[in-house]
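Input.
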Amino acid sequence: MPGGGGTTPSPVRTERTTVRWVDADLPQGGEAGYGEGYLPLSHLVSGDQSPFAFRKGMPTLVYLSSELDEKKALAFEDAVFADDRVALASHFFNCLRVSLDDAPSERIRKQYGSAKGPSLVFLDGAGKELKRFDGWRTSGVRVYTSMGSVLKATRKLKLTTVLRKENAFLKQLDELYWKIEDAKFDLGELAKRKGNSAQRQAAKVKAEIAKLQTTYEGVQKKEDAFLRKAEGAAAGDD
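Output.
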């Protein structure tokens, strides 16, 4: 039997625990006093340079990255963004990834980023900088804690409560998914056998699969509705 329950996440959990990055460019324009026509990061939020699918009103997490040390960068991303809590919390932020390798000069790179390594910048719905982490030692725990603080301060949204409910939904979906997969495996084994007994057992398993799938789809709809409502609260929707 597949035996995935408890060890391998279901597809829904995998999708929910993946940060949905949107690649963005450094904002450019003619504002006086900002080097080489580049503008403050706030213009990604409050100006007309927001990337596609940007949700107005929602706080923003900007990841200023560099691929100059790819191995080190991948290790950093795994340590910070593979934290399930960070990934789940990211649904309540616009998550923008900006490559500083595209900046035209070292001066511009320093203007936005840090010589200590990658930078993570939190902006509120109006583009005001709330918090910033620089360097390779930033941890998933620190980022998650800051995400909770930002949501509480800007939207009165208690992240721990939201994630507790979301994880309860995901636990249900995980269990149902693997019950369905195990039942499908059993059905495949029965298909190898001949005789009326095997056919009767197969019919029962098919009925069980149909029932489980109906339950799974029902929980998934409730989970999706809950998450969308929480995302709307993070964006300040009425």
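The chain is about 50% helix and 10% strand.
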